Amino acid sequence: MIxxxxxxxxxxxxPLGSLFKTISVLRIGAGVMLMTRHGWTAAxxxxxxIWKEQSWDWVKSFLDVGIPYPxxxxxxxALTVAVVALSWITGFLTRLFxxxxxxxxxxxxxFAPQAGSIYTEAAWLYLFVSxxxxxxxxxxxxxxxxxxxxxxxxxxxxxRKGW
Length: 163
Fold this sequence. Notes:
It contains 7 helices and no strands. The protein is mainly alpha-helical. Helix 4 (70-90) packs across helix 5 (94-111) and helix 5 (94-111) packs antiparallel against helix 6. The longest helix has 28 residues, at 24-51.
């Protein structure tokens, strides 16, 4: 959809040049920011909670806002954030992980309005990025494009009636 901007889309383009003409910049940038700002620390916190049985502030935060089973939900959310970030960075099953990430973000916006304006703003931005990636896919530079994931259904030859 947004694979090429201007010019002849049928022309042979250099793959690195097409990186800046696709949704890939948004996908990779959002994935790197999600991983470095939230995913990595969340995954290590979940690891410390599960395997080393150390306390984790996410469990207390989830308990304070009234989420049931915070010791289960917090590591699940942390794993989801890290996997979504990895998916966006590599471009593997981008639309699926965008759909999976949307309820996490909506849940955050509903249950944590007192988290602070910076976190609320980040949640809204990630929600818009998820929606954009759901609509447009992963772009030209991705594992989805490499393995033609999601494109096979649109290229099927249609059967004609009466033949």
